[in-house]
Design a protein that fits this description.
The protein is 39% helix and 12% strand. By secondary structure, the chain is of the alpha+beta class. It has one domain.
Amino acid sequence: MALYQEKVELVKESLLEMLQVAEYSIAYKKAESEKWGSSAKGILGYPAAVLLFSIIDCMGSVFVGDTNMSISIDGNHHSIKNTSQHIFILNSKYFKFGLSKKDLNNIYSNFRSTLTHNSLMPKGYILQVGEGERRPFKIAINEFDNRIYFLNLIPLLEVTKKAVINFMDDLDKGNIDFEETKLHKNIEKRDLRTTIYYNTEQIGLYQRIKRWIIE
């Protein structure tokens, strides 16, 4: 974790950090530690899923309002217009999933959102380690004609790694003008009026602070 003058550099580092922790979570074996007690099975699947969806969310957010990013969904072309549509990035050139709009919305609402905000998932939404699975998402229809979703974490991690590499390559090559994105402009509005500079000579101190309110 570092301090940057340019927001794009923070985005790039945070994506790599989240990938690193997601990979650690998926490789972690609960059975190797006594602290898990009766739940000493499997991996750190829930935080891994939250982190991977955070990466997906971030990438989608960069293209909000960008009509040049045309994403095919159900045979039609869509752009990302709002927060709930960040998930559309899964059908973009970075992931190439080809999911239906119904499935994208369900994945957003019932995997991404409920895990992030409630640490829960509805019945019919199942996290799996995904060893030996090819697809990150598998979708079935049950006997009541309801959809059941399986999220395979290992395949999703591998696909997300490649997506992040290609996304960052586009940033580095200038194919994405980050400072002109709606995301950058919205965050820029929240910048403090006076820039706070980290004092590299005295660790833990910042320049341009007049006084502390809480210390």
